[in-house]
């Protein structure tokens, strides 16, 4: 099997015990793939077993790679890899910039060395208040959306019943779906009930190992198996939110979901775990377990 590297920019270099090299992105992808297939992860070159503990970093190669010349994506000139990022972000004359009047609607984007010349001639500072209203409204909309999230959080913080649990999701498999990988937490209690959180990888696909892009969806399930002293009155109108928590390192963004649990409907739909990208998803899959904090807000009747 040939491995085509999609990551390239990760700077750590790993090697199998026979010395075959791969970048950090490819290594994580390999571990995640093995987890999805329920196989032992092996080196793509020699098939020897490879894991987080058996693989080692190759510092000599890392150093050599960091000094290799790499091409700037804007000006095409070559720089040592370890200084390229700084060049592209701060120094390159050809890097793409916005006009400083973009906030009042100037759409100009161009190379840094043309920015000053453009801004001197830019017509936007001379437009009337009425003319820049559209641009301002667009910015307002974005801010309002963010504000709605915060308002929602503050509103929820006034609920009588709030609880959080620091949970760990572990992989498991069922016999019916040989190729599919699921994750599940152990049971935890909240609001006099027992719950679990379940998750799936690339929920819409039959075989997630066939696709390069990865996503995780999750659901909250009200577990009825336990007989409880307190009788639950339905529906349970629940808002919930997943955060990184004190034991996790997931780069998850804040998104609040809501579901009304009833005695007929005890599983919320699968919703997106808001992760930045496939690389982050693979990083979580490559780990043994996924740690997170679940905050639950219960509306009182
Ligand atoms: Zn790679
Ligand atoms: Zn090898
Ligand atoms: Zn450049
Ligand atoms: Zn402009």
From TrEMBL:
Cited SUPFAM superfamilies: RING/U-box (SSF57850), TRAF domain-like (SSF49599)
Keyword Zinc: yes
Zinc finger (TRAF-type): 68-106
Chain ranges of the TRAF-type domain: 68-106
MF (Gene Ontology): zinc ion binding
Entry keywords, A to Z: Metal-binding, Zinc, Zinc-finger
InterPro entries recorded: ZFTRAF1, Znf_RING/FYVE/PHD, Znf_TRAF
PROSITE patterns (alphabetical): ZF_TRAF
Protein name from the UniProt record: TRAF-type domain-containing protein
